[in-house]
Design brief:
CATH topology: lipopolysaccharide transport protein A fold
CATH class: Mainly Beta
Structural class: mainly beta
Shape: elongated
Largest sheet: 17 strands, antiparallel
Distance between the termini: 67 Å
Oligomer: single chain
Helix content: under 10%
Radius of gyration: 20 Å
Length: 210
């Protein structure tokens, strides 16, 4: 059962949260703050709820939301609800969403609802109803009403996979790419993010305007 924290018990809870995460690796930094906090530490039911201007920092990732729940062994899972935003300072990845679930062990973030992911280093903006981002492999999987913007490129599809490391964007599900005034359609489209070149496969169609 969740209970409100007194100032003393909040300090004890904070220590209990931080020690497991740092016991295994000194570089694994985990801090948080909020207007209020509640939680319980029963074995198997560990949970901490941060409400109001909630903020969590896990290594280079900063998360903000109206409400953040932290649970699981060694505070493995973080769930953010309402006005969610985040920033990976090392990779220069910024995002906003309605709801986020983050696995600290696997380094995987799942964005649900109206979601935007901005790769500021590569000047790419992606929007979708669902985005899954794998930190280690630098791969973003996007589904449902996908929209991507970069330079003079506008991409639309139902499914997209962005391989940041290899600088490739793969589109499927009625994909269409607008490059300036030109339009490209196919069953599958790949975009080279570095050069903006477009490669198409299956039922290829297009319109070129001089």
């Amino acid at each position: 059962m969740l209970k409100k924290m007194t100032k003393a018990s909040m300090i004890i809870m904070l220590l209990a949260l931080l020690l497991p995460a740092s016991a295994y690796a000194s570089e694994n930094i985990f801090t948080f703050r909020a207007d209020s906090m509640s939680g319980g530490r029963a074995t198997g039911l560990e949970i901490t709820v941060l409400s109001g201007n909630a903020e969590v920092r896990s290594n280079n990732l900063l998360l903000r939301a109206d409400r953040i729940e932290i649970h699981g062994s060694d505070n493995r899972f973080i769930e953010c609800i309402g006005n969610v935003s985040g920033y990976d300072e090392e990779k220069e990845i910024f995002f906003r969403t309605d709801r986020l679930r983050y696995d600290r062990t696997l380094g995987i973030a799942r964005l649900e609802g109206n979601s935007t992911l901005e790769d500021r280093r590569n000047e790419l903006v992606a929007r979708a109803r669902f985005i899954e981002y794998d930190e280690e492999n630098e791969i973003a999987l996007m589904q449902i009403s996908v929209r991507l913007f970069k330079d003079n490129l506008i991409c639309r599809a139902e499914h997209a996979l962005y391989n940041r490391g290899e600088q490739n964007l793969f589109l499927s599900g009625f994909p269409v790419v607008f490059k300036g005034d030109d339009e490209f359609r196919a069953d599958r489209i790949r975009v080279d993010i570095e050069t903006d070149d477009v490669f198409m496969e299956g039922d290829v169609r297009g319109t070129l305007r001089n």
